[in-house]
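User: Just a sanity check before I run the rest of the batch. Below are the structure tokens for the first item. I only need the designed sequence back.
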């Protein structure tokens, strides 16, 4: 881990988080290349830096889903420093880690603008999914 970068950013009020990404594909090479490409794109985000990265072994998975007999899985564990909770949320929305753990600081504050930006980002992505046919918001007229 780049301890110097971590300490410098934490002193400026940034967050330290751990993220896990998993890729599952029916081809071993595609699994490995997809995860590497995903992390390369992630690493180009503004206001977030990967300070440590651990790639697991590519593992053969039997019957991972119905109608798929064999697939390959690979997991990446990365430590990041991120400028704010808002940017952390954006990285989650756009890059879809399987799991996220905020390491430090133990407490932090959000101002009203940050909170509004975050909830509007979630609302926007929900509407994009609904527009794309991947589901939507159910509106009921329950009396």
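Assistant: Here's the designed sequence for the first item:
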């Amino acid at each position: 881990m780049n301890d110097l970068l971590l300490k410098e950013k934490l002193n400026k009020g940034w967050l330290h988080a751990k993220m896990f990404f998993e890729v599952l594909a029916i081809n071993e090479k595609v699994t490995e290349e997809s995860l590497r490409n995903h992390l390369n794109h992630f690493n180009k985000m503004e206001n977030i830096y990967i300070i440590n990265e651990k790639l697991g072994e590519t593992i053969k998975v039997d019957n991972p889903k119905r109608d798929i007999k064999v697939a390959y899985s690979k997991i990446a564990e990365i430590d990041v420093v991120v400028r704010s909770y808002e940017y952390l949320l954006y990285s989650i929305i756009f890059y879809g880690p399987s799991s996220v753990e905020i390491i430090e600081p133990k407490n932090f504050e959000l101002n009203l603008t940050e909170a509004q930006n975050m909830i509007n980002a979630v609302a926007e992505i929900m509407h994009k999914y609904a527009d794309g046919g991947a589901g939507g918001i159910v509106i009921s007229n329950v009396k």
